[in-house]
Amino acid sequence: MSFFENYGETFSGRRGYVRDTVVAYVSDGVKQDELVKLSAAIPADLPVGSVVDSTGTLITTAADADYVVVEFAKAGSTAIVVANPYHTILKKSGLITNGVDVNSVVEQLQALHHSFADFATVALRTT
After folding, report:
1. How far apart are the C-alpha atoms of 88 and 44, rounded to whole Å?
2. Helix %, strand %, coil % for the chain, to 5?
3. Which end of the chain is flanked by fewer CB atoms within 10 Å, N or C?
4. Which domain of life is it from (predicted)?
5. Distance of CA 123 to CAs 89, 90, 91, 120, Å?
6. Could you give the domains of the chain?
7. Which tens digit of pLDDT belongs to each residue from 13-68?
8. Nearest residue to 9 via CA among 95, 91, 67
9. Angle at 91 between CA 116 and CA 123, to 5 degrees
10. Cβ neighbours around 125 below 10 Å, total
């Protein structure tokens, strides 16, 4: 069984590898992401949209949510590329939450300054 089947996600051939799966908008093409170096290797592949804790492991509770992965990371990697909360607007529908309630995860990520947009919301920051 594939990763996406295990976690109830649909694999379309692109999902999991392409940044626009989870990123709706970026305000700065250079600052849109951050490289996070981990103290230990990640235990499993992390597709784009994976919500992970500070160790790079998929979350088990909403309170664990620290980062949203924006570039596919292979198991064994010691660094991940994550969304910068100040320069990206994320798609709620693109999050991989490992069975944790997505609304609770969004609340936690919003507390960490992430912004979200969906089909009914336009959330472009203006001055």
Report:
1. 25
2. 20, 25, 55
3. C
4. Bacteria
5. 7, 10, 11, 10
6. 3-113 (2.40.300)
7. 555 677 877 888 788 888 899 999 999 999 999 999 999 999 999 999 999 999 99
8. 95
9. 35
10. 10
